[in-house]
């Protein structure tokens, strides 16, 4: 059975289209690099290394990929440039497989999750954090799950207002205390409301500023402690939202956030507007944290569950 209709034809087309800029840029450079060459030699691998780095795969991950290809070329003496894309495809798929601690197949189904399932969402301002929460709420709600949102990013009035608008739009309640209030008090009330109303999912927005690491760490720790007064094992997931279009900047943000709190899952947004989609591969490889969602368009359902096989398939489509 399919992923609750996830990889319906429409979803797959959206994914293909969302990764088009990355694919065109990457394979345009790759075909220029191997023109007139028949074997995968040192020059071709040097060119490939440059292409992977410029596609925001990241230096360390690129080195791993090149090393894997070198080993295969040494083993399969006959490897030609015509096979390079399929070799590359297989090695990137293998890398993503190794870097996923779980195979996320049913991220909007809650039967196997604690009830209520509490997600704390973190990320700097401007990455699409509040929009991601709205889209998550919509998709959980669409599947018949009861959702409560907590507007604990009280540092910006716009964040509270935006989340309230999303709540109205997707028809789920939003707990808020307005701006410049105690974020942990909002989180407490959202958990309380979720428990009392028998909610399936509670999603808590948090402040998106890396003003100082110590302040951020203290704030997130306090929110967690207060949640645990009601639900001792909350939050069940800490989701870091990153803007894929910022490339290596997203990697830097992931490094900063993983230093201050335990991140358990990643959402990488805005992949449709950029040629930097390779950043998904690099982030997955560096942090060994499951990429759970990717944003490949503006529509509510364009926040998709990340499926590594489908991602690689879309990235390499119409090649070879």
Automatic annotation (TrEMBL):
Catalytic activity: GTP + H2O = GDP + phosphate + H(+)
Family matches, as Pfam families: SRP54, SRP54_N
Root EC class: hydrolase
Keyword Cell membrane: yes
Residue span(s) of domain SRP54-type proteins GTP-binding: 290-303
GO molecular function: GTP binding; GTPase activity; signal recognition particle binding
PROSITE patterns listed in its UniProt record: SRP54
InterPro entries, sorted: AAA+_ATPase, P-loop_NTPase, Signal_recog_particl_SRP54_hlx, SR_rcpt_FtsY, SRP/SRP_N, SRP54_GTPase_dom, SRP54_N_sf
Annotated GO CC locations: cytoplasm; plasma membrane
Keywords assigned: Cell inner membrane, Cell membrane, Cytoplasm, GTP-binding, Hydrolase, Membrane, Nucleotide-binding, Receptor
E.C. no: 3.6.5.4
NCBIfam families xref list: ftsY (TIGR00064)
Function: Involved in targeting and insertion of nascent membrane proteins into the cytoplasmic membrane. Acts as a receptor for the complex formed by the signal recognition particle (SRP) and the ribosome-nascent chain (RNC).
Family statement drawn from the similarity comment of this UniProt entry: Belongs to the GTP-binding SRP family. FtsY subfamily.
Full protein name: Signal recognition particle receptor FtsY
Natural source organism: Dyadobacter fermentans (strain ATCC 700827 / DSM 18053 / CIP 107007 / KCTC 52180 / NS114)
Gene transcribed to yield this protein: ftsY
